[in-house]
Design a protein that fits this description.
By secondary structure, the chain is α+β, with helices and mostly antiparallel strands. It is built from 12 helices and 14 strands. 32% of the residues are buried.
Length: 406
């Protein structure tokens, strides 16, 4: 089928090109024909203030976060996440980030004051309805324009995996995770590709430019690759101790979806493809790892973090279900946001079932695949359940930022 489509495309190209070339050839002393050009469309701001009455319905209005209260409520987790953002906003890095923030009216001081006031309201409110009313009274909602200019935002989720690894290479544990090379900033570009650094099978070993930079060794190739994707991991060591690793840097290549590559080759259907299905495929076909993992040319380096919690791009801990990752070139780092999207939750029977959430979060992370105003990655937490939930999360939702009225 793919071959036939290619031939069809080629035949269409010939059909359109040949008549034009024959006309030009018959025109004596022909001059270049001017091609009309259109002015590039104006660049729209990533966030726009909205009228709440235009988006609210009696059944659903922004800011009704019932998950803060009652049995299993996580109010303290939200307060911790707010405090983490306030810590970031007091640093020089935040001052630098907001000096060039492109949306007028969104400033470091306004973001900080908004968090301080919102924290007070969370502490003093006794119900979701009370907090919602106070937020609607005191805050302006800025909506992301999304990936279509109409507010449609694609959601995914990520988590911190827990893997077993060894501090020394053995016959069983032979797939390495590497620390950042000390001279990495001096590496010429284009950087070496993944296949150049670890080989097609991940075992380049002593021939690798990274020899001597190994932090840990895994007993299969997929686990360290998943750590590359997630950016951090908790580690159970073979000697019974525990540690953790976090992102330290990466080569200058774009994200490549291995799932899409498998679908392109007809190995798995793209529709309904989830991370658990992807992992299951590679567990059943381990030799395929050598064919597909090198297609993501980017290579990620790590630092040992000695059991500390996963940390976002603004260098504060990310909080399960209260932290998100966005493109920090267009979204305000550390700011208070609200998301609407469906995520899987365990039911009484143990199955994961979708539930629509209206949830306050803090923007504390980013990712190589998170580009533009139409992408959000939602942090699920650590461990197997978080991974199962993250692996089947997705869909289109909405993203808003909350700032005090001026």
């Amino acid at each position: 089928m793919r071959k036939n489509l290619t031939l069809l495309a080629l035949s269409l190209g010939i059909a359109f090109i040949n008549p034009l070339s024959s006309v030009v050839a018959q025109t004596p002393n022909s001059q270049p024909i001017p091609v009309p050009t259109e002015a590039p469309p104006p660049v729209l701001p990533a966030l726009e203030p909205i009228d709440l009455d235009s988006v609210c319905t009696p059944q659903n209005c922004l800011g009704f976060d019932e998950q803060l209260w009652g049995r299993g409520g996580d109010k303290q987790a939200l307060l911790t996440s707010i405090d983490n953002s306030l810590g970031y906003l007091a640093r020089n890095k935040a001052i630098e980030a907001y000096q060039n923030y492109p949306i007028q009216g969104i400033t470091l001081n306004r973001v900080r004051q908004s968090l301080i006031r919102f924290r007070q309201l969370v502490v003093s409110s006794g119900s979701a309805a009370e907090l919602q009313a106070a937020v609607r009274r005191e805050f302006v909602f800025y909506q992301s324009v999304g990936n279509d200019g109409k507010g449609t935002v694609k959601f995914t989720a990520y988590y911190e995996p827990v893997y077993t690894a060894s501090r020394v290479r053995t016959a069983a544990y032979k797939y390495p995770l590497y620390r950042l090379p000390p001279d990495f900033q001096k590496w010429p570009k284009p950087h070496p590709k993944r296949i150049d650094l670890e080989g097609k099978n991940g075992l380049l070993g002593n021939k690798s430019k990274l020899k001597g930079l190994e932090i840990l060794w895994f007993n299969n190739r997929l686990d360290p690759y998943m750590v590359h994707i997630q950016g951090s991991a908790q580690i159970k060591l073979t000697n019974g101790q525990k540690t953790s690793v976090g992102y330290a840097g990466g080569t200058d290549y774009a994200w490549t979806s291995i799932g899409k590559e498998l679908a392109k080759d007809g190995k798995l259907p793209l529709s309904g493809l989830t991370m658990p299905k992807l992992i299951s495929y590679f567990r059943q076909h381990p030799k395929e790892l050598s064919n597909y993992l090198p297609r993501w040319e980017r290579f990620v380096f790590f630092a040992e973090t000695n059991g500390t919690a996963a940390t976002g791009s603004i260098l504060v801990p990310v909080t399960p279900e209260r932290s998100i990752a966005t493109d920090k070139s267009v979204m305000p780092p550390g700011a208070l946001a609200l998301i609407i999207n469906s995520f899987p939750y365990p039911s009484n029977g143990g199955k994961l079932e979708p539930r629509l959430v209206n949830r306050f979060v803090l923007d504390q992370d980013t990712g190589s695949a998170i580009k533009g105003p139409g992408r959000v990655d939602y942090f699920m937490g650590s461990g197997q359940l978080a991974g199962d939930r993250a692996g089947i999360s997705g869909g289109n939702g909405s993203l808003f930022y909350l700032l005090l009225k001026e």
